[in-house]
Amino acid sequence: AIMATGRSGYPNQVNNVLGKNGRRRPPLDGQASAINEAMKLAAVYAIADLAKEPVPEAVILAYNLKGLNFGREYFIPKPFDNRLITKVSIAVAKAAMESGIAGKPIENFEDYETHLLDRMGRDEKLIRMMQNRARSNPKRVTLGNAEEYNVLKAAQILYEEGIAQPILLGEKKYIQEQMKKFGIELNVPIVDPMDDDQDENRVKYRETLWKMRQRKGMNEYKAKRFVRQRDYFGPLMLQHGDTDALVVGFSKNYQSVLKPVLEVIEREKGVDKIASMMMILTEKKPIFFADTSINQNPTAEDLVNIAKMSEMTVKTFAIEPRIAMLSFENFAAISDTSKKVAKAVSILHEKFPKMIVDGEIQPDFAMNSDHLSDYPFSKLGTTPANVFVFPNLESANLSYKIIRGMKVAQVVGPILMGLKKPVHVLQMRASVDEIVNLATIAVLDAQRREL
Question: What pLDDT, on a 0 to 100 scale, did the predictor assign at position 122?
């Protein structure tokens, strides 16, 4: 016998939320003349099937659980699992159509699922668009620190949703133990730089690393030692085409992870300094911050390059970039910082006259149409900016971390800009969703470079 209760203090709570939206929404959308037994059964089976599927990270976090799998403690979905709205609604709508009571049959269920997600008020339209693009041509993405639960869970999502072909980089035995511990089943390659099966690659990678760094303090002994470390092994896999993209950095600070990447992966032509960008998914629209992780005190020329790389990156998301070069003054150029930003803007206007960019300007003014109207000469016009280039690292980094910490918007990144190959470095202790999103961007990055 299966016993459950409506009390929230017990693991398998029977709550009317489980089926309410899934039962009510489809009859309205499909103009069903009634709710029949076939529709009720469809809802029951859909709920039962959901309990056997991998649990979304948002649900695990909401209930402060880890390793939630079908069994004694979990045989019906949690009441606030958003999948209940989409999966149950689709099942009920199909049952209404099949039983002949739908007055307006739903023609495209993929579009219907998107419609349901939009009705939920979620700010993930851009994420869904990116994931759909990734699914059209999924790439091999190597994930560092694969022993970590968050990385393994992200790999499972990427694999099962067809977003990427994950490769797990780390200590094979420990990875397998963690997968067993958390009930994560993944039939994907596991690459352990220390394993005997990597002998051939270690020799190949050692030669490459030594040749690249022999005039920069690297001897053959160091190269032999470094290729046994995942921080070097991952970039060398990418350099040799043994993976299409690389996502690393879960357990170390950004700069220490970036160092071996820069020693192996070259910059794009014309790029003097690389930079990073954060995507902020607000309720209204996505906005972008740069440079959030790398250049501590950029010069005017550095700001020009950051703005140009930001423009190119934002365009890959099918968004028209409108760039505000930020300062604490509006078109005054009094302080040293404002003068630096004003100089960068002058260079941008001269070199790239079609680029929508202006400043120096305060962020609240750049985001407000009424405030922008006070500066009719600005190339931003009265349409708010969506890309914000900060005058230094501290202001950019602190700004996005305040947003991330307050959880008022979803933060995606850092998106690394300026390298020849798709590498992206995670924030320390990134969440599962953050890893999935950055890996999705890595797939799009790899796709773009094929063109």
Answer: 47
Q: Mean pLDDT of successive 10-residue segments in the chain (451 residues)? A: 64 64 54 77 86 75 63 76 80 84 77 69 69 90 94 93 95 93 90 91 90 80 86 93 94 89 92 94 88 93 96 88 92 87 95 92 90 88 93 93 86 93 92 93 91 69
Q: What is the pLDDT of residue 21?
A: 52
pTM of the predicted model as reported, rounded to 2 decimal places: 0.75
| Pairing status of strand 357-361 against strand 323-326 | parallel
Amino acid found at 37: E
Q: Which residues contact 399 (CB under 8 A, 6 or more apart)?
A: 289, 390
DSSP β-bridge partners for residue 419: 267
Type of residue at 428: M
Let me know: does 298 contact 306? Beta carbons within 8 Å: yes
Q: Is 300 helix (H, G, I), strand (E, B) or coil?
A: helix
> Which residue(s) pair with 410 in the sheet?
281
SS3 412: strand
Taking Cα atoms as reference points, which of 292, 291, 226 lies closest to residue 264? 226
Residue 82: CB atoms within 10 A of its CB come to 15
Beta strands in 282-369 (DSSP E): 286-290, 323-326, 357-361
Count how many Cα atoms sit within 13 Å of the Cα of residue 165 in the half-sphere of its side chain: 10
Alpha-carbon gap, residue 80 to 212, rounded angstroms: 53
The structure tokens 């009441």 sit at 79
The two structure tokens encoding residue 335: 């302080």
**Which token pair is 389?**
């280039």
Helix (H, G, I), strand (E, B) or coil at 288: strand
| pLDDT the model gives residue 15 | 64
| CB-side neighbour CA atoms (13 Å) of 65 | 16
3-state secondary structure at position 285: coil
- pLDDT value at residue 300: 95
Give the C-alpha separation, 349 to 81, whole Å. 49
| pLDDT score at 30 | 56
Q: What's the pLDDT at 351?
A: 95
Give 198's contacts (C-beta < 8 A, 6+ positions apart).
191, 192, 233
Say which amino acid occupies 243: T
Residue 294 pLDDT: 93
Q: Domains of the chain, with CATH numbers?
A: 17-122 (3.40.50.720), 138-264 (3.40.50.10950), 275-418 (3.40.50.10750)
Residue type for 17, please? V
Residue listed under structure tokens 């949690």: 78
CA atoms of 360 and 333, how far apart (whole Å) = 7
* Coil, strand or helix at 274: coil
Please answer whether residues 240 and 140 qualify as being in contact, where contact means their C-beta atoms are separated by less than 8 angstroms: no
pLDDT on residue 61: 55
